[in-house]
Amino acid sequence: MAATRDVLRAHGFVDGGFVRRVAKDNGAQLVDPRNLLLAIITHGDVNDAGEIRIALRRVTYYDARPDEAVDVPQGMADYWSAIELLPDAQLGFGSLRGGGKARQKPRQKGVDTLIAVDMLVGAVSDLFDVAVLVAGDADFVPVVDEVRRRGVQVIVAAHPASLSEDLKRAADRFLAIGPGYAHGLFPPLTKDGRTWSAADVERAPVGANTGSR
Fold first, then answer.
1. Does 64 have pLDDT greater than 80?
2. Boundaries of domain holding 135
3. pTM, whole model, 2 decimals?
4. Spatial CA neighbour of 186 closest among 73, 21, 66
5. How far is CA 79 from CA 178, 197, 201, in A?
């Protein structure tokens, strides 16, 4: 049981589309998911003023990837690569459908399901004592309920403007994150002096002809 451990093991589950939207809507740089999670698990509002020792063991950043690599904007590919190089971090991919000749708005497929499955399997397999979900969608309520039923503490962190009240109520603890809230709770990812904005990851795909005609 988690209560018998001297140090609680935490895994972080970050919805990439959600945190990019928060950055875009608030004119902020794209977030460093590992530093964000470290700030969350050490924050007094979720960690009883530091009385509980929580160790971040794994960070998974989930995103949607187009079916063809050539459709990935260079900035997005670079941002993913920078995340993958962070300690104890990994990427999880769903797919991105739509766009192209049909001019449909691309839509994420399978990302929410992937997060839900990883959270539930991890809880059942006793991989962590604390699950930190950085997301705001009400679709996560059933998995949060089930993970909590397995004895795992669930912390939800989200920007209040993009948060389902049902998800907030389902969590054991909630922490507001994003520009305009607690200092350090939306830290930008920096690699070799570079940061990324939402515009950077929406530009021309890898290999696209961006020259003028």
1. yes
2. 2-202
3. 0.88
4. 21
5. 19, 10, 8
